Amino acid sequence: MTLGANRIRHTVVLTPRHAAGSPEEADFLAAAAKLAEIPGVEAFEILRETSPKNGYRFGISMEFAGPETYAAYNDHPDHTRFVQDRWLVEVEDFLEIDYESRSC
Amino acid sequence: MTLGANRIRHTVVLTPRHAAGSPEEADFLAAAAKLAEIPGVEAFEILRETSPKNGYRFGISMEFAGPETYAAYNDHPDHTRFVQDRWLVEVEDFLEIDYESRSC
Fold it and tell me: What's the complex ipTM?
């Protein structure tokens, strides 16, 4: 599972504003899961964040074949609409972390 | 590549104190790479961190079959020695993030 040359693993850890385990939280995560349908998104995962060393509660991870695909995702209307309508309203705290191979 | 039940993906993003691209940095990363040899460590990767939205420069990612394997890694003398002798001395800033499946 080593990340190939030029590939980008885009991740974000987050804490929703919703109460843990609430229907509102589940609805938010279900909406986030639809980001997997945007062209170019690979290896999409929504995970629990469980380290006692930070306060984030979930993580989203996805991979792109390269920077052009990542840029197209960022600009895709389904992504920008999700950010505007859901993320900015329902996420209390987050941090984006992107990985690339050391060999490229 | 979805994370299986009970599995843990342990990640850390970091910025070494060393100058970017310096021999000292390469030596530190080479020492970190040897953590892959500790029993129970799977899917080990050292990656560049490239998001403009945070200041970390590298990431390390590994997976464990479950919490017992993760605990054994944490307590392994090769790990505790690396933390004491290298990490605490040579790392300027870091954040640990651990992921688990949402279904377990």
Answer: 0.94
